[in-house]
Amino acid sequence: MCNHAGVSSHEQDTAAILDRLGRLVRELTRLTGGGEETRAMTASQRIALIELGLDGPLRVNDLAHRMGLSAPTASRAVDGLESLGLATRAPAPGDRRALSIALTPQGRALFDERYTLAAVVFAPATASLSAEERRTLIALLERMTDALGGETRET
Known about the structure:
Layout: H1 9-32, H2 43-55, E1 58-59, H3 60-67, H4 71-83, E2 87-92, E3 95-103, H5 105-127, H6 131-147
Helix pairs in contact: 1-5, 2-3, 2-4, 3-4
C-alpha cells in the first residue's frame, strides 16, 4: 500500500488489517455456504444463533449487547429464530420477570453443524501457521477485541 500524503501509517495499517480480515471472513463464508441454510435467516438471526450456541442461554439484553444491537432488534431476531423452531424463551432462573433465550434441539443441531463445518474449512488456514504463530494470533485477536470493549472467550 503506498503512503498517501496526509494519511498516517497507522491509518494505512488499520485499513490493511480491515481489508485482510474482511477477505478472510468472506472466504470462510464462501467455503461454508454462508447464509444458504435450508432455513432462510437474516444476518441478525444468524448472529443470535451463534451467540446462543456459544454461550446460551442468554437474556435478551445480554444477547443484544453481545450482538451490538438494541434490545428490540435482538428480540426481533429471537422472534425469527422461534418461528423457525431454533430458539425458545422461558422465565429466567431466579427472576420470573426476565426471559432466558435458549436454542432448541434443532437450533443446537444447526449451530453444531455450522460450527463444525467452519472448523473443518478453517483448519488448513490454521495449519499454515506454526504453534507459536497460532498462539500469537490468538493473543493479538484477544487484545484487539478487548481494545474495542468486546468480550473474549476462553480457549
